[in-house]
Write a structure and sequence with these properties.
single chain, 576 residues, alpha+beta, eight-stranded mixed β-sheet, five-stranded mixed β-sheet, globular, binds adenosine-5'-triphosphate, binds magnesium ion
Length: 576
């Protein structure tokens, strides 16, 4: 018999469940998000043993018909997305049709639901993904989903659950994030019958929700934030700078009512507070950033904890301006945020550097004489699809500066490629594939020791499973050093000290932002890809040309650190 077989649907669900369903907190998040999408006004979350033995989320939303209820537990079944276009204007919290099937495949799930005008309800019981009972029930005016014995059939995942107290704290935090973003909805969280958190729908004082998250001490310190500019609205509350925390736990950022963490946003926040918060302390806030759903891609992170803005510089500028204005009312900030790169900037940078080596002398490049409208516009994040075969149709001419490859494009265009961004894309895909195959280890081919600070070593050690999953095995090697035992082949020759320091930095950053959530391969692979692309400037002409073919096959939707513009087209002047 052959060794290869197609995974059963059940197994596929369990694998995916590892992404969506990590622990009780992720179930609370997914179920309560479904309730919010269903238009609930009141959501009750009841837990036992920190959610490990029971989570029950009940709402008064639109409910489901018996037929829909049975569809809801199938993979990729959703009422929130119909066409591809819808993916670019998502205004619901869910859209993948994955949460319920993932949860149902790793627990015993009972769903009871009824539609508003129906005089009967419907109950469905599912165990490990299999329907075990369908029955009529009394109408309940909404939906109740009970999840028992989480991971009863996946012992390996059960091991990753922490003490009930820790799981409970995380589950409560998940509820708090939703409550902060949805003040019009009432939330109740109970543990073993004891009410831990209760807030009425649409309370008159919006600071009430802030106090839920950060304690009632926040009341006298809360400062209103309200700013609107260029399609970005920033509202919410910050605490005055005399109310700070030793870590970033009190920084809540929401994009279109979805809790997210975002490096750029965090950077804008840190910059705005830099001169007002003492060093070693962090500000406290709940910021709602609202943009047109078409200007933000929410389909980028397995747990939907990150988004990608079409125009991130405008968003960061608006956040910075909103915070400065709230902190220093009446004072226009002298420290104007640096504008993001624009087309004009990119073209000038390119023209200035164009000493095309392969042409044996400076290339007489055109200046931009009568720039077209939009020349000053910020550069878009280039995820736009290029015509198939675009990159392999380019002919490499030489390098400009250290960073750009200059190529001959079709139809009178020169194309400048950002060599680092291009190589990083290709490496990102290769690393992803290698890590999925688990075939990245280069045991005993080399052994390098790297000096690191002891806190960096601690951070790497506590995420050793994730690092191992992407092919990177490190182990403490005496005080202040680690030994690298394996490395993905793409990284042989990379600066391992900087690589490990960057990963440690990412771990500490994400711990601050996510309250101790595990890092995933998704967070680490972009860092590896960036380091694997460090030597882009030393590739030969043949290697560059070969890379073009790989670029055509690259998945531009994978997150990577330098995901700005990869290729810039510059028209050639027409011959006189
Ligand atoms: N509490 C609820 N009330 C009414 N309908 C619900 C409820 N929960 C789930 N549904 C229905 O079941 C479908 C599947 O839910 P599920 O959470 O699996 O996917 P989703 O919310 O569409 O996408 P995602 O996987 O991103 O959460 C939803 O699209 C919705 O139609
Ligand atoms: Mg959902």
């Amino acid at each position: 018999m052959g060794r290869i077989s197609i995974l059963s649907e059940e197994l596929i669900n369990k694998i995916a469940a590892g992404e969506v369903v990590e622990r009780p907190a992720s179930i609370v998040k997914e179920l309560a998000e479904n309730s919010l999408d269903a238009g609930a006004r009141q959501i009750r979350i009841a837990l036992s043993e920190g959610g490990c033995s029971r989570i029950c989320v009940t709402d008064d939303g639109v409910g489901m018909s018996p037929a829909d209820a049975q569809l809801a537990i199938l993979r990729h079944a959703t009422s929130k997305l119909r066409h591809l276009d819808d993916l670019f204007r998502i205004d619901t919290l869910g859209f993948r049709g994955e949460a319920l099937p993932s949860i149902a495949s790793v627990s015993r799930l009972t769903m009871t639901t009824s539609e508003p005008d129906s005089n009967a309800g419907f109950r469905l019981r599912v165990e490990g993904g299999e329907i075990v009972e369908r029955a009529e029930s009394a109408p309940i005016g909404g939906t109740s989903i009970e999840v028992e014995d989480l991971f009863y059939n996946v012992p390996a995942r059960r091991k990753f659950m922490r003490r009930p107290q820790t799981e409970l704290a995380q589950a409560q935090e998940a509820a708090v994030r939703l409550a902060l973003a949805h003040p019009e909805v009432g939330f109740i969280v109970e543990h073993e019958g004891r009410v831990l958190l209760s807030c009425a729908p649409g309370s008159a004082d919006p600071r009430e929700r802030l106090a839920l998250a950060l304690g009632a001490e926040i009341y006298p310190h809360a400062i209103d934030v309200a700013e609107r500019r260029l399609g970005v609205s920033v509202t919410g509350y910050i605490a005055s700078p005399d109310f700070t925390l030793p870590n970033a736990r009190g920084i809540y950022t929401f994009v279109n009512r979805r809790y997210v963490r975002d490096r750029g946003l965090n950077h804008a926040i840190q910059r705005a507070f830099r001169d007002v918060v003492p060093s070693g302390r962090q500000p406290v806030m709940a910021l709602m950033i609202d943009v047109d759903p078409q200007a933000v891609d929410v389909n980028v992170h397995p747990q939907k904890l990150e988004v990608r803005f079409a125009d991130s510089p405008s968003v960061y500028d608006a956040v910075f301006a909103a915070l400065r204005r709230a902190l220093l009312p009446g004072v226009e900030s002298g420290d104007r945020p640096r504008p993001g790169p624009s087309y004009a900037h990119a073209v000038q940078q390119f023209l200035g550097r164009a000493q095309v080596a392969a042409w044996g002398g400076p290339l007489p490049l055109p200046g931009v004489e009568s720039p077209a409208p939009g020349y000053d516009r910020p550069l878009p994040r280039s995820t736009a699809p290029r015509p198939p075969g675009y990159f392999s149709s380019l002919r490499y001419l030489g390098t400009a500066g250290k960073r750009f490859w200059i190529c001959e494009g079709g139809d009178g265009f020169l194309v400048a490629l950002d060599s680092h961004a291009a190589l990083e894309r290709v490496r990102r895909g290769a690393l992803e594939k290698a890590s999925a195959r688990g075939s990245v280890l280069q045991r005993s081919l080399f052994s390098t020791t790297v000096k690191l600070k002891s806190d960096e070593i601690g951070l790497l050690e506590c995420q050793s499973d994730v690092l191992k999953a992407v092919g990177l095995e490190v182990e403490a090697f005496g005080p202040g050093a680690v030994a690298i035992k394996s490395l993905p082949p793409e990284l042989v020759g990379a600066d391992c000290h900087r690589l490990l320091a960057d990963i440690a930095d990412e771990i500490s950053h994400s711990q601050h932002l996510s309250g101790g959530q595990q890092l995933s391969a998704y967070d680490v692979l972009p860092i590896l890809a960036c380091h694997a692309a460090a030597r882009a400037d030393s590739l030969s002409a043949e290697q560059v040309q070969a890379l073009m073919t790989e670029l055509d096959r690259a998945d531009f939707a994978l997150k990577s650190l330098h995901d700005g513009i990869v290729a810039l087209e510059v028209p050639l002047p027409h011959a006189p």
